[in-house]
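Hi L.,

You mentioned the student needs an example of a multi-chain input paired with its predicted structure. This one should do, with 373 residues in total across all chains.
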Amino acid sequence: MTDNFDKAQLEYFDELLNFFGETNLVRDICTINLISQLVENEVFFVHPRTEENINAWSILAAEQYKRFVVFVSSDPQGLNTVPQVNGVYTLKASLSSVVKLLQNQPDRLTRFKESCEQGKPDMTCFYLSFPEHLVAAYLLGLAFNKNASLREKDFPDELWNSASREYVEHSGEEGVLNCDTICNQLSAIEKILKKFEQYSTC
Amino acid sequence: MLILSGIACSQAILRSQLKHTWLENQLGNKSEDDIVFFWQGPGWPSLEREFRGRVSEAEQLINDLESGFSPAQLVDQLPMLVGLADDTKAAIKQAVHEVYLERSGIEELKKPLNQALSVLKDALARFLSAWGQPQSPESEQELRQVWRALSRCGEEFRNLLDRLPRGIVLP
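Structure written out for the whole complex:
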């Protein structure tokens, strides 16, 4: 990785932090050891209130992995305690993608904050929206292959219409999905759904 | 085979918490000297407060191994499928679950996971026993010895967790 790339990542990180509603961050570069029990050699961003109230936010950016780590703690002892007690959560996603996601859907951030305040960070708030009708159609195709009698069941037209729309949107190709065609389209759908594997917890 | 990590999957979250939070960040990043330092001085809060609970969570993960990552759960999550007749949903769930079991090989991991966790539990019990001993050169040596065993067992269990899916499997 080049220095320029590193810098770009951190700039994106600033943008992300703004979305978290915290513009007055204390930024420090720490070498963190086992005595303080924080992770070594990270760039560390801390909200000023954090030291007074650990229910506030602290965020770690793991430069070397090109991912960011959100650390949320409900421990009243503050940052001197072991962060892992309360969980270190990571997203293997590029920051620009996350920023874009939050720009388009700011309610995700609200949901995430609320879940953290309840002590259970909901990382699904950062997940990419996925083409759910296409997934539903894919499942039906699998099921039809396994149990042919299922083809005779009544499935709503809207399911197939929506799945077909998502297929065209994401593949860029014409295609109609229905009870008769779905079994032959599974490979093509799988290729589309591969694009939605990019977010993962560690 | 696809892993849809972008869809909520409590089993995948539990897996990542056990692997990352417990086995890597609480257990795997400590040296023998670190452990002795904690034992002689400040203590090790996560050991005393959390490790037994982590073992229970690991047992839960293994018990629910097949169902936890199964695409069958999507039938109850995807809006377009939720409204289907109950018998239709049941048949779809059964079919996709069977395909998933055939293709994922997830059942094959259950036995080694159980074995590794059993060994890890024994090692943890021995370590906790040594941890509670009064401090002396002999008990420090014992602590170091059982720590090495615990660390090794933790690594083996972690490696197995690494082989589990990161989300719901689409076979």
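You could point out the following to them. Chain A has a mean pLDDT of 58. DSSP finds seven helices and five strands in chain A.

Best wishes,
N.
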